[in-house]
């Protein structure tokens, strides 16, 4: 009982050592006293919370430190992690070079499987029954394990650049405290996240299933829904923000959105969705330009496009973005507002179809912002 009562004190001390950026003391305490976490009721959840809260702390951006943290809190015989993570825990892996298309595809497939409740055979047949494990909900358990694994790779990704950011605990002096310093740190954090290939790989494999190393077992909408769930469980900078910011590339680069529609006497969204046809070009020399309303299957439902072999990147991305925004918080909506304002200020929009696409992006989520008047007005 005395050791169990000591656990909250140990957790507080570990958090303070992470904040003080004292790697050597943190690792020494974890290696010597980490065995106490065998008495913890929720060690996996505690590990995920620690990695989530301190994902940007340079203290954890070290293979030896994050391995000691994982070893202290994880019982690998009770969890279902990837072979790469098991190699890392055994000391055989010290970088994140393996985070490639094949690895990301396996993570996507795993989350999709539990979301669809097609659990299938476990990778480890000797795991205890689900109701005897720390997290009995299979979806929450898989998400927690995936978050722990991905945040561990994030720490390894940041390790080379974080050595220079590490504060000397013996040097004294305040850590960055001004608003300008915090803003600069936030920009640097986003830049580090943008350099991590996870978000780009995830986007490519979700929007273009044919690029996956192995064919998926479920419908495309399942992977889109799974992405929305995971993106909002990870820190926003690692997946949610890059997906939202990808809107600029879709609007400016996709040829379907550069088409200028012809005139009509009136406009109806119902008729638009029912009768719209795509025209690659529209010019004054085209005799049919005055009567044709040029558009694409961008604004159809995702499932309708998939069934009729009309799938296209803008429509797939729009569905994916709404999945992320559905579970997103105010910071995700603020990033959407910044992206739309950057597009408006860039002067590169050239068609009304691009404007309609932005309307379709923002329209379905405006009801979420009624209580946030400033952000609501900014997006409008």
Can you put this structure into words, describing what you see?
- The longest helix is centred in the middle third of the chain and has 25 residues, at 138-162.
- It is built from 18 helices and no strands.
- It has helices at 2-20, 23-33, 43-53, 63-73, 83-89, 101-115, 138-162, 179-195, 198-207, 220-231, 240-245, 247-253, 269-275, 302-307, 313-327, 330-346, 352-362, 373-379.
- By secondary structure, the protein is mostly helical.
- Helix 6 runs antiparallel to helix 7 (138-162), helix 6 (101-115) packs across helix 10 and helix 10 crosses helix 15.
**Mean of all residue-level pLDDT scores:** 82
- Portion in beta strands: under 5%
Q: Sketch the major β-sheet.
A: none
Intertermini distance: 58 Å
Output the helix-strand order.
Answer: HHHHHHHHHHHHHHHHHH
Number of distinct beta strands: 0
Annotation keywords:
about 375 residues, mainly alpha, 18 helices, about 55% helix, globular
């Amino acid at each position: 009982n005395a050791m169990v009562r000591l656990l909250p004190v140990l957790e507080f001390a570990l958090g303070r050592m992470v904040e003080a950026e004292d790697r050597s003391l943190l690792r020494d305490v974890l290696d010597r006293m980490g065995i106490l976490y065998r008495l913890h009721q929720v060690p996996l959840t505690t590990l995920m919370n620690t990695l989530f809260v301190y994902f940007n702390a340079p203290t954890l951006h070290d293979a030896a430190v994050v391995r000691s943290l994982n070893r202290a809190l994880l019982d690998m015989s009770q969890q279902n992690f990837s072979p790469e993570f098991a190699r890392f825990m055994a000391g055989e892996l010290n970088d994140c070079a393996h985070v490639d298309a094949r690895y990301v595809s396996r993570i996507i497939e795993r989350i999709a499987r539990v979301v669809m409740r097609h659990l299938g055979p476990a990778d480890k047949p000797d795991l205890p029954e689900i109701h005897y494990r720390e997290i009995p909900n299979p979806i929450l358990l898989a998400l927690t394990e995936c978050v722990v694994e991905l945040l561990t790779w994030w720490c390894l990704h940041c390790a080379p650049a974080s050595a220079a950011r590490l504060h000397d605990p013996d040097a004294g002096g305040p850590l960055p405290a001004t608003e300008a310093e915090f803003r600069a740190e936030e920009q640097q954090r986003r830049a580090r996240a943008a350099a991590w290939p996870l978000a780009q790989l995830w986007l490519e494999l979700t929007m273009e299933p044919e690029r996956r190393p192995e064919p998926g077992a479920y419908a495309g909408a399942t992977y889109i829904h799974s992405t929305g769930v995971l993106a909002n469980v990870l820190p926003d900078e690692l997946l949610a923000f890059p997906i939202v910011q990808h809107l600029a590339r879709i609007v400016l680069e996709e040829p379907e959105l550069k088409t200028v529609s012809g005139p009509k006497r009136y406009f109806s969204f119902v008729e638009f969705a029912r009768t719209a046809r795509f025209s690659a070009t529209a010019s004054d020399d085209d005799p049919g330009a005055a009567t044709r309303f040029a558009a694409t299957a961008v604004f159809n439902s995702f499932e309708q496009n998939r069934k009729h072999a009309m799938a296209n990147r803008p429509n797939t991305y729009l569905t994916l973005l709404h999945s992320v925004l559905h579970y997103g918080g105010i910071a995700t909506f603020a990033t959407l507002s910044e992206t739309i304002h950057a597009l408006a200020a860039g002067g590169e929009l050239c068609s009304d179809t691009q404007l309609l696409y932005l309307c379709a992006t923002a329209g379905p989520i405006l009801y979420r912002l009624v209580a946030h008047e400033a952000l609501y007005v900014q997006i409008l």
